[in-house]
């Protein structure tokens, strides 16, 4: 990450893939029976958990790949494909990591109604920072050539956490102002941006796996 443009791409990708605005309806639904204190605690825990996931992925993600013998090029192709699939879901106005079926949704509703915390699962994982977000952080961590660049990547976790806390804290006003249509439009715009970034990540990985492709054209 040697240029300012390279430093911006990880943040844009993370904001697009996490997209806390798209999770606002889930947050409202899951916390409808919560007290104000429980709701505030859920907001704090979700934001902090999102930061932890991003920070851990940035700091030890590459070591885990090395442990399992996975090359970064292969991971870029796989991660890029995952990002592309997530972007397609977003273009269909679905949260990037939303794979929640009816049974899972009902189980979470029961959990929430009993007062159990839903901040980590499912709000943070997989709705906010699922596999696509983790893959993004690891891919960009590989591009870091200096310690300060890695620190910036971890710092983006703080930005995501703050965006999450803000979106969840203002969930009701956001839902009233934007409505379902407004949130869907925002999700589709984020999906379009993410699709372009996903293709770029995959192209970079394929270029490393098959150097001849880099020479074409």
Automatic annotation (TrEMBL):
InterPro entries: Multi_antbiot-R_MarC. Its main location: membrane. This is UPF0056 membrane protein. It is found in: Cell membrane. One of its GO terms (cellular component) is plasma membrane. The chain crosses the membrane at residues 12-30, 42-62, 114-141, 147-171, 183-203. It comes from the Bacteria. It comes from Acidovorax cavernicola. Keywords: Cell membrane, Membrane, Transmembrane, Transmembrane helix. It is a multi-pass membrane protein.
């Amino acid at each position: 990450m040697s240029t300012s443009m390279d430093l911006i791409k990880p943040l844009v990708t993370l904001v697009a893939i996490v997209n806390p605005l798209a999770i606002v309806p889930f947050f409202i639904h899951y916390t409808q029976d919560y007290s104000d204190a429980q709701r505030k605690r859920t907001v704090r825990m979700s934001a902090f958990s999102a930061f932890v996931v991003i920070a851990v992925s940035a700091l030890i993600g590459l070591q885990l790949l090395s442990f399992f013998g996975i090359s970064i090029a292969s991971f870029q192709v796989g991660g890029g494909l995952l990002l592309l699939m997530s972007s397609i879901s977003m273009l269909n106005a679905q949260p990037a990591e939303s794979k929640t079926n009816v049974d899972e949704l009902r189980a979470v509703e029961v959990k929430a109604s009993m007062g159990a915390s839903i901040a980590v699962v499912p709000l943070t994982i997989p709705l906010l920072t699922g596999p696509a977000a983790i893959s993004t952080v690891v891919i960009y961590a590989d591009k870091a050539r200096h310690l300060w660049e890695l620190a910036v990547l971890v710092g983006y976790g703080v930005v995501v956490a703050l965006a999450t806390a803000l979106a969840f804290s203002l969930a009701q006003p956001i839902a009233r102002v934007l409505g379902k249509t407004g949130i869907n439009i925002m999700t589709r715009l984020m999906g379009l941006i993410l699709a372009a970034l996903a293709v770029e990540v995959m192209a970079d990985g394929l270029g490393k796996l098959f150097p001849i492709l880099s020479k074409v054209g």
